[in-house]
């Protein structure tokens, strides 16, 4: 029987099913045993405090410990709580986790999954609200996904846990309550496969993480005006499904990217560059990026509200490329 | 924990291997045949070998940027190590790591990680992994006095203490973090005393006395293996060479200081002791020296005769399960 789950439940179910399936999988992070984010309910009762391991507030220590445990055959899943906490463990993520397979000439397997929630648009100010997907895309040796539906987050997180390489799973807190009916059984989604969320012929809108919902909403509004928008959701950022993106660009010739990252060297920037290099002659208008401006995230809710890609901003961008 | 004669001879042999391997490496660096940074541990051989010999073959070990000696101490073959220094395809890391990342997983050497302090959490995690798998293996982490000022040192000791992990932290205090004296940058006289902050045992040992190091580390290993948790061992030792080969600055320490440490050379001291107790006959010493010299000569010849990796190798080993790369 297909069942309806929330995005947060999708994260929980992936943890649960993979821990059930493989004794080597264990979850660790600050207060995971206490279900602090709502995605690890009941896991400690089922699997015990050894495998659902509360850690001290020592990000470098426990992220590095995940690396060491992976090297000796475990499959750690690190719940960072929120993405900016990764900065405290930057050396372990960049210098150790991303590089060990390479610098040791393939001797080290690094099956480490890092779950990092992007916790923005909720008045927590600059230090807590980062969406650092692109920051980590600049580091070779990391696989990175940004799932946008309950089924996708479950399927990609399960795949991430089974990967023999490090995978960062960026979940988007604005999607936590989203619901979706997903099929029974072992729901796995391969890395590197984009989803076409809407098909269309006039403009390609490529949405990243939480901006996909805004892109779909923009597409619906534009359809009422007779503009046919195709919405592509890459889902997986490394590897990136370039073929699906270029096929859409070949069809529409117009591209808008909607990405909650800060504008400079954003996910949208990288995809824009790929399109410019590989599909320049398909373009009928300059590419437009709808991103978060290169300013910090302010606390005051009215100030924060307008900064991320909204349906309004995406509609305006589409109208611009249609001029 | 008495050592039979064969183990003592093996200790001496491994110390000689490290010394001669690094002498050969230094010559190669001087003649431009080794590219990049080269940090030798000449002078620190007793600390390395005394620690490594207290481990089983299947125990884990993590090293630092100054780690030619650590895999040798753990029992790695010399050929792949020297080939790695030369950047050859036959190198133990396939030419991807070089001097600062020598690593031989087949002997439990889980990598020499060159950012100071970065190996401490890794060794802690290896111990966690061993414990969670119900194995009675331990992890030993080498690091320097400088790393004891990194946050990872403190985070790791705390983790090991609260989770009672089978890990031995061996701080090779060679008196200088890069060029800075421990007296100027470390708040305590004995780094081992920092263990008290985490309710762990901290032991200071003469790092130039291989048997003393062995004794202390073997006790820590035994304790860890039976579930007694982690220990911090501080070996007081000294590197004869500069921080890195070719570094022009050497005025941060005095010749008298260097000479005073050279006068207590760990290899010479141990060889003399073994000869005095009759474990090593005079003829045996000569043979041992020749045997190790032959091993090093063979490793160097092997490395020199090996090919460089093909250019395409720059793109391999990025992942265990490869994906198309952006180039």
Please provide a brief summary of the model.
The complex is a heterodimer of chains A (323) and B (327). Chain A has 13 helices and 14 strands. With 323 residues, chain A is an alpha/beta fold.
What does this structure look like?
Chain A is α/β, with parallel strands linked by helices and 323 residues long. Chain A folds into two domains: 3-182, Rossmann fold, CATH 3.40.50.970; 195-322, Rossmann fold (3-Layer(aba) Sandwich), CATH 3.40.50. Helix content of chain A is 39%, strand content 21%. Chain A has helices spanning 7-21, 43-51, 59-71, 90-97, 100-103, 125-128, 133-137, 150-162, 211-224, 242-252, 267-278, 301-305, 311-322, and strands at residues 3-6, 25-29, 52-54, 75-82, 113-118, 143-145, 167-172, 179-182, 195-198, 203-207, 229-233, 236-238, 255-262, 288-292. In chain A, helix 1 runs parallel beside helix 8, helix 9 packs across helix 13 and helix 10 packs across helix 11. Chain A is globular, with a radius of gyration of 19 Å. The model of chain A has no long low-confidence stretch (mean pLDDT 97). Chain B is α/β, with parallel strands linked by helices. Chain B has one domain: 3-Layer(aba) Sandwich (Rossmann fold), CATH 3.40.50.970. In chain B, helix 1 packs antiparallel against helix 10 (266-276). The chains are: A alpha/beta (323), B alpha/beta (327). At the A-B interface, helix 3, helix 4 and helix 5 of A face helix 5 and helix 6 of B.
